[in-house]
Amino acid sequence: MSGKESLPLEDLLKHPEVQKVTSNINQELVERREYAPPVCKVFTYPYSALKDNSKFRFVIDNEAKKQLPNIIDNKVQNITGAEDLEESLKEKYCKKRNIGIVFSGGPAPGGHNVIAGLYDAAKKANPENKIYGFLLGPDGILENEAIEITDSLVDKYKNLGGFTMLKTGRTKTDTKEKMALSKETCKKLNLDALVIVGGDDSNTNAAFLAQDMFEDGIQVIGVPKTIDGDIQVKDADGNILCAISFGFHTAARAFANAISNLCTDCSSDVKYWHICKVMGRVASHLALEVALQTHANMTLIGEDLADYIDKRRFEKAKKEGITDYSAYGITLRHLSRMICDGIVKRAASGKNYGVIVIPEGILEFVDEIQIFIVKLNAIIAEYNQTHDTDFHSDFPLLEDKLEYLRRLARLSREDNLFSIWNTRDDDLFNDIPEFFQEGLLMERDSHGNFQFSLVETDKVIMGLVKNYLNILKEKGIYKLGIDNSYYRKTLSTGGLDPDYFGPILFKNYDKEEEFFLLKESIISKKMLKQTMVNEGAIQKNDIIPAPVEKIYKKSVTKFKTQVHFYGYDGRGSDPTRFDCIYTYNLGLTVFSLIANGATSQMAAIKNLEMDFSRWEPIGIPIASLMHLEERKGKLSLVLEKSVVDVNSISFQVVKSLRDKWLAAAPCENNYRRPGPIRFTGKSEEDRPITLVLNALAKHS
What we know:
Elements lengths: L8 H6 L1 H7 L4 H8 L12 E7 L8 H6 L8 E7 L4 H8 L3 E6 L7 H15 L4 E5 L3 H5 L3 E3 L2 H7 L18 H13 L4 E6 L1 H13 L6 E6 L8 E2 L5 E3 L5 H22 L3 E6 L6 H10 L3 E2 L2 H5 L4 H10 L11 H17 L5 E6 L7 H21 L3 H4 L3 H17 L8 H9 L2 H7 L16 H18 L7 E2 H10 L4 H8 L9 E2 L8 H10 L11 H10 L5 E6 L1 H4 L5 H19 L5 E6 L9 E6 L4 E6 L2 E6 L9 H8 L1 H5 L26 H6 L1 H4 L1
Parallel strand pairs: 3-4, 3-6, 6-7, 7-16, 10-12, 10-15, 11-12
Antiparallel strand pairs: 1-2, 2-17, 4-5, 8-9, 13-14, 16-17, 18-19
């Protein structure tokens, strides 16, 4: 202790330095709130106008024509800037408006800036304009729970992550009753327009609300939000209208920073494989971006696996003049072997560690899983209908269910007409871990659908990987490569001749090799001794020389894993500069659409993949994007999700660099350090790497 008396706690808590370092307001937060995102050129004018663009063509679904007649003929609308407007248009643009906005679905970084952009544009057009925020998502509309957005609220949350200002919810406006309640709330608040910030389902709801409230003159505008990046809009000719939804870049950067740290950790500790599952149930966009950001050793892309062809089966069928449909689409067994191949190759180069990135929805791209689900759904439904009972009650235990499936497989051998569950199905199903078998045979939801969200993707795949690695270990294939210099030093220090023992121990002994691999027959100390006796290196009653035993033990592999899930942390991150700018301009776009009378349009920024100077705010007709899709056991009009295009430049680049990033050779790892989201620095990239690469297609 020093000679000075310590301050009483009460005085200490009042000390300016204590208050400064314990405050929830820090310099980063201050700078974020003060940051003014740049605006697209059209928004530097006093006014804006809309211009229909007939260049972009869509294939219109007949059902959409029937259900959305008032909005189906909408065109893509370009926003143009105007120094002045004729008096009638100016009056319309600047009239007093009440606008409601709601967050729907999971949070995505940048949502607050949509509000900020809308608020600033509305107040600029007419200071008496009011913006109402509905609380807790669509429930806030149904229950008329709203707050008026103010300067202080906007200033408090501008450039910050989350949907904290209003909160969010997942309620769907999917019944006549909910539609009626929504319309009633809009009328009570005297709303001129309603803005829905959400994903594909939310924008689908926006279209139906726009149709329902068309005659009432209440405009509805959608805003594309999802960290999964699966809202991407192209027209029928492949022209990109919306390259990515907001929040994607921030989530990918947050995941990439954390996964990069694991790359550093595993190459330091050299004993773990880190299995990183990232959000993306239907599409692998986040996994692809993370691969480009980190250069993880292996990254699985579901859309790539869906296109897999088993060449051995294909060639065999071709020679026999038949078509083997089982050659198309990857199986779980083959997927696990692909992963094992990379693990074994790295181990041979002395690297029994690494990082694997797996998209959350990878199993949805495995053909056999989809086939299993369809077949098991049919089997369970047929059983319940035929026996007027319940499959799960009659077969409560997993073994009971498996025995019933085995009986069906035997029946398929006896009766060629009965083939819903054949012996190949049964063999493949028995390869699956028991917990996943239970998952696939679980009770269906109220609509008879499989509950995919309950499956532990990483556990399924890595269970198969571990099982197969054990087999490869027993076969002497999965071994750790021994560094040439380490081997020579170890034997020389022990008084043994490395060049004498080298050919006895290793299958690839050559003085020029950097890593040696023990012979496949040497899978135990017993086999090591037997090999040395057979080669005359020692006598039957001799013990194994200590240096040789040390080398053997060094070659024995242990597959250790650490499993991580990246999802909620990324969607709650403060937005990158890209997402701050993107979303603020989306908010400005929303107001331009409303002020110029648009409805059922999705606010978007064209040319996001280009430099900011080329960004073009537009309105995209939501109804034109909708098509029939099976949801909850019935066909419904929905907005189509966008998956990774395996022909895109970004994917082709990742594909071509897979071997380099695997680094299964005597070389340094190829890890990339993206670093944290540096909002205040100058080194932050200005857009997602996938967009940078895909933009090259426009210049080719």
